[in-house]
Amino acid sequence: MRSDCTALTLRWHLTIEDLILNQMRLDESASFTHVTPGQNCRMKIQMQNQSAKIVAHKSKLDFSWVIGGLAAVAFYLVLPSIPLDENFKYRYFNSHWIEHCTVALFFIGLAILGRKLLNWPSERGVLSENILDGIKFDPQSDSSVVAQLLREHIQLTGRRYQSTELFRRIETVCGYVISRHTAADLESHLSYLADTAMARLHSSYAALRTITWAIPILGFLGTVIGITMAIANVTPEQLESSLNEVTSGLAVAFDTTALSLALSMILVFATFAIERGESNVLDQIEDFTVHRLLGFFPVEKSSEVSPLLAAEHDVARRFLDQADILTRQHLEAWNNTVSRCREQWASLATEQGRSLAGALSAAMNEALSTQQQLLQQTQAESRREVEAMQASFAENLSLMQQQLAESVRSQLELMHQSWKSASEAQSSIQHQFTSALAGTIDAVQQNVSTLAGSLQDVSTHSLAQAEALERQTIQISSLVGSSQQLIQAESLLAENLATLKQTQTLEETLLNLNAAVHLLSARAHHRAA
Question: Based on the domain organization, do 298 and 438 belong to the same domain?
Answer without folding.
Answer: no
